[in-house]
Amino acid sequence: MNYMPGTASLIQDIDKKHLVLLRDGRTLIGFLRSIDQFANLVLHQTVERIHVGAKYGDIPRGIFVVRGENVVLLGEIDLEKESDTPLQQVSIEEILEEQRLEQQAKLESEKLKVQALKERGLAVPRADTLDEY
User: Fold this and answer.
1) 54 Rama sector, left if φ>0, alpha if ψ -120 to 50, beta otherwise
2) Rounded Cα gap, residues 18 and 67, in angstroms
């Protein structure tokens, strides 16, 4: 096989099932239908997978266009090993509630951390003032 530089090497992955991790932390799973030189992706039969602890839920998203700059990781899913997971699949409603509770607990933890630092005379810059990149 000839070496192809950059995203051209992904042409052989067209029509295969892939997991895509986005910059905002979301995880997408779908069939790669198209890719260009900027790593822009078109995914088909896409689901957004939400993980919380040992549980996960899939939200159907259909056709999904992802701008290349938002892709952190792209990997092919081995269809034979896909069902061999220690994670438990739950309903969309249940995983969204689990995610909400996890985010709430994280927020409470952050508040306690900021309070403890403040008591020691230290300040933490607010997240919205930091550069996201």
Assistant:
1) alpha
2) 16
Residue 92 DSSP class: H
Distance (Å) of CA 101 to CA 48, 93, 104: 19, 12, 5
Domain ranges for the chain: 6-122
Six-digit token string for 101? 């509770």
Three-class SS of residue 2?
Answer: coil
- Non-local (6+) Cβ contacts of 118 within 8 A are none
Q: Which CATH architecture has domain 6-122?
A: Roll (2.30)
> What is d(CA 48, CA 38) in angstroms, rounded to the nearest whole number?
22
Indicate whether this model's pTM tops 0.90: no
Residue 6, SS3 per DSSP:
helix
Q: How confident is the model over 65-100, as pLDDT tens digits?
A: 999 999 999 999 998 888 888 899 999 999 999 999
Alpha helices in the chain (DSSP H): 92-119
